[in-house]
TrEMBL record, chain A:
Protein name listed in UniProt: Skp1-related protein
Low complexity bias (residue ranges): 8-25, 178-188
Bias (Basic and acidic residues) ranges: 165-177
Reported function: Probable essential component of SCF (SKP1-CUL1-F-box protein) E3 ubiquitin-protein ligase complexes, which mediate the ubiquitination and subsequent proteasomal degradation of target proteins. Regulates cell proliferation during embryonic and larval development.
Sequence similarity: Belongs to the SKP1 family.
Residues covered by region (Disordered): 1-25, 160-188
Keywords: Ubl conjugation pathway
Domain (SKP1 component dimerisation): residue spans on this chain: 127-170
Annotated GO biological process: protein ubiquitination; ubiquitin-dependent protein catabolic process
A matching Pfam family: Skp1_POZ
Pathway per the UniProt entry: Protein modification; protein ubiquitination
Domain SKP1 component POZ: 38-96
Automatic annotation (TrEMBL), chain B:
Organism: Caenorhabditis nigoni
Pfam families reported in the protein's UniProt record: F-box, FBA_2
F-box domain residues: 5-43
Protein name: F-box domain-containing protein
Domain of life according to the entry: Eukaryota
Length: 188, 585
């Protein structure tokens, strides 16, 4: 079989990366779910991509929705901004069914956006993405002086912390007094 | 000024701690200094520092290590050479097998006070004690008595102690458990002490104040006393039986010196030392040290790699090179690659490099009583050499076209016992050659695997099999999978990958599946995404297709995770990947 022998080559890969022309049968059709954020824009996401989120995965695992039911009942995440939810959905789609690489350079560079993303990712329990985000947060202060760290991370001084604590106590006292007065008024 | 800000303290506690855990130890220290709140957050990281020591090498310095990275030192250095605006500065250096990270802070004239505060802060945040102090300024004595009166190592610099009262105070109030060293001091000649000094090891210059009862009543293990006022009679008492220093006979000390030389120098220097003569070789063999992971390879230059026990992040490489004039050899070089470091000893490739490599390996294996664990055979003569020198070996990889005859192939299969990994790159031998014997190693990867037959696979005990350009047929592969499912053969199989060229061009790979009892229900929960060969080699499995599952009676699941054909020019190659797993694993 000369054709076989011609195929012998040092280029034969140790880690073949080419996908086969066709996959093994039978394939189960993929199911989709719908989510929306504060802006009410609905995103269609496959169950495979949503597996990254422990929160959503737990919610959908026993639902058994049909396509129509899923479409009619999008999961509302009113505490997440629309653009942040879009980022999360994009990340889940990009990493669907793939092992996550050690670094992810596609995270937002703007610190405000990263803060919202961290909160959303923590809420949605997406462990790998949270790990990347925390690394990114740590990288912000690489090679910085203490005062620069204080500035970047908005760390109050002890005096500021004490003043804020006093203010909070004062406010709590006023609120308690107000409630007592209101209760006394009700009793009359 | 930073362009935008990140309200770190508003993060949920768990996320906040994960962010802090991603900081390096200097960054944690700088963060913890920002406020009481930041300090209490840093304390929650629960990182203990090791070997905290205070010293003064030109600049006052605080040294420490973090657990599991013994080759990396962290140093806070107080310096005043430059303008105060350049501080704090960060700097790293590589010194042989070790690396040092520096945080350089400004010495603003109150360096001793600053350093004491910093040490107290570090000890509190990381719940770690000081292990060593070099007292280079007298105020450190009262401070250490108050802050940490029990300490392993204390060394007092020349001229710091000026009275016998201070010595008394040190001896009475600081419990030195391991080493107490006292450099020359200026106190009155008549001052004496008769009290024992409790540390295990004692090293004192100007020890006129130290008397015989102080020595005899002590429990010191090592004593080194200079400018002593002890008499010959004190040292070897009059009845000739009671010696102060029984362990320090002349012969023993000389022998100890030899050991110190070879044990503390770099390993490559020990190797060079051992090559000087039969006598130096015998001395080097006395070092109780085994090398790990000795492997021979050729990455451009022929190389011998090895590691030392307890230093997994450090590789030592002897490299044979001919780029430069012979006079520059041997040369030493180190490189740092991420968390790992490599030390090179570069020797001259004088045209007889293969024999030089063989002799060097034999020498190293003998001196360090160690075995070769891995060989990349890049020259045919290594085959007979390894059969003779060490026929049982963990890993063998044979480079492309090194084997040119059936006889050599048979000799390898019969005479080298490869226990872990056997890899064979493409070769050009008679295509009629076949073997029905099993290939013993746990993991085999064979390019040009036309010679590997069905009985060879079925009768083997391999755990991972990867065959390329195989002559196995769809029927053969179907038999392999059937036998695995019945549990009669291939009980150890974890992963199988075969690329073959169908004998008939129109043969469909579906023929493999025809006689198999595969399931079409979902058994994918927990299917592995990777197959781990060893620490450095992980195969990533395709996950995009629903697999076909074969279930064995003991509950093990075999998943065909990839099957398909692809044209390479005019050749259609078919590939199948099969992984074994269980729901418990």
């Amino acid at each position: 079989m000369s054709s076989t022998e011609q195929g012998t080559s040092s280029a034969a890969p140790a880690e073949p990366t080419t996908a086969p022309e066709s996959a093994a049968a039978p394939e189960v059709p993929e199911s989709f779910y719908y989510v929306h954020g504060k802006d009410k824009v609905v995103h269609k996401v496959s169950a495979g991509a949503l597996q990254h989120s422990a929160l959503i995965h737990g919610m959908i695992s026993n639902l058994g929705y049909t396509e129509e039911q899923a479409k009619a009942n999008p999961f509302p995440f009113e505490n997440i901004d629309g653009d942040i939810l879009q980022m999360v959905v994009d990340w889940c789609n990009q990493h669907k069914g793939k092992p996550t690489p050690p670094e992810d350079t596609n995270l937002p560079k703007q610190k405000e956006k990263l803060f919202d993303l961290v909160l959303a990712v923590n809420y949605l329990e997406i462990k790998e993405l949270l790990t990347y985000c925390c690394k990114q947060v740590a990288m912000m202060v690489k090679g910085k002086s203490p005062e620069e760290i204080r500035e970047i991370w908005m760390i109050p001084t002890d005096a500021e912390d004490e003043a804020a604590e006093k203010e909070a106590k004062k406010r709590a006292g006023k609120e308690a007094a107000g409630e007592t007065a209101a209760a006394a008024g009700d009793a009359k | 000024m930073p362009e935008s800000r990140f309200p770190l303290l508003q993060l949920p506690r768990v996320v906040l701690l994960e962010c802090i855990e991603n900081l390096d130890v200097f960054e944690i220290i700088l963060f913890s200094l920002l406020s009481k709140r930041a300090k209490s957050i840093a304390k929650l990281i629960r990182l203990n520092l090791l070997d905290i020591h205070i010293t003064c090498e030109g600049d006052p310095q605080i040294w420490f290590k973090v657990p599991n990275v013994p080759w990396l030192d962290w140093v806070i250095d107080y310096n005043k050479e430059k303008d105060s605006s350049v501080y704090p500065a960060f700097h790293s250096i590589l010194e042989g097998p070790k690396a040092v990270n520096f945080l350089i802070l400004h010495d603003n004239g109150n360096v001793i006070g600053d350093m004491k505060h910093m040490v107290e802060h570090i000890c509190e945040v990381f719940s770690s004690p000081i292990s060593e102090i070099v007292i280079f300024e007298e105020s450190l004595i009262e401070w250490i008595i108050k802050f940490q009166p029990t300490i392993r190592h204390v060394r007092i610099r020349k001229g710091v102690v000026s009275s016998i009262e201070t010595i008394d105070r040190i001896l009475k109030n600081i419990d030195v458990t391991e080493f107490f060293g006292l450099e020359p001091l200026t106190i009155e000649e008549k001052s004496k002490t008769t009290e024992p000094i409790p540390s295990r090891s004692l090293f004192v210059f100007d020890c006129s104040w130290l008397t015989l009862p102080s020595i005899l009543n002590g429990t010191n293990s090592i004593l080194r006393l200079y400018d002593s006022k002890l008499t010959p009679c004190d040292i070897n008492t009059s009845d000739g039986r009671k010696r102060i220093f029984p362990k320090y006979g002349k012969r023993k000390r000389k022998r100890k010196k030899n050991f110190n030389f070879t044990e503390t120098e770099k390993e490559t220097e020990t190797i060079i030392f051992s090559l000087l003569s039969e006598r130096t070789k015998s001395i080097a063999k006395l070092i109780p040290l085994n090398l790990l992971d000795i492997h021979i390879t050729s990455e451009g230059d022929p190389q011998i790699w090895f590691k030392l026990p307890n230093l997994p992040g450090l590789d030592w490489v002897i490299d044979y090179n001919k780029q430069y004039e012979s006079s520059v050899y041997p040369a030493f070089r180190s490189s740092l690659n991420g968390p790992k470091a490599v030390n090179f000893l570069i020797l001259h490739d004088n045209g007889n490099v293969i024999d030089d490599v063989k002799q060097m390996v034999e020498h190293i294996c003998e001196v360090f009583r160690s075995q070769i664990s891995d060989i990349v055979i890049f020259d045919e003569s290594f085959i007979e050499w390894i059969i003779k020198f060490q026929p049982t070996i963990g890993h063998v990889r044979i480079r492309e076209d090194v084997i040119s005859s059936v006889e050599t192939m048979e000799r390898i299969l019969k005479s080298i016992k490869v226990t872990e990994f056997f890899g064979l790159e493409p070769l050009t031998i008679d295509k009629k050659f076949k073997t029905t014997e099993p290939i013993l190693s746990r993991f085999i990867v064979i390019f040009s695997s036309f010679w590997v037959t069905l009985p060879s696979i079925l009768n083997g005990t391999n755990s991972i099999i990867r065959l390329y350009d195989s002559k196995l047929t769809t029927k053969d592969i179907s038999t392999i999978l059937n036998e695995w499912q019945m549990g009669t053969k291939l009980r150890n199989l974890k992963y199988l990958e075969i690329e073959f060229v169908p004998i008939q061009v129109n043969t469909s790979y579906y023929e493999i599946l025809e006689d198999l009892d595969w399931t079409d229900y979902d058994e994918n929960d927990g299917r592995p995404r990777t197959v781990e060969i060893d620490d450095d080699w992980i195969i990533t499995l395709p996950m995009e297709y629903s697999p076909l599952n074969l279930i064995r009676s003991d509950g093990m699941i075999g998943s065909i995770v990839d099957i398909g054909s692809k044209w390479f020019g005019e050749v259609r190659k078919t590939r199948i990947s099969f992984v074994v797993w269980s729901k418990q694993s």
